[in-house]
Amino acid sequence: MTEEEAAEHAREQHAESLRQKGAHSVAVEQVKVGARKRFAVIASVAKASGVKLPQTLAITHKGQTRQVPLIVREEQQYSLD
Question: 7: Cβ–Cβ under 8 A, 6 or more apart, which residues?
Answer without folding.
Answer: 28, 39, 40, 41, 68
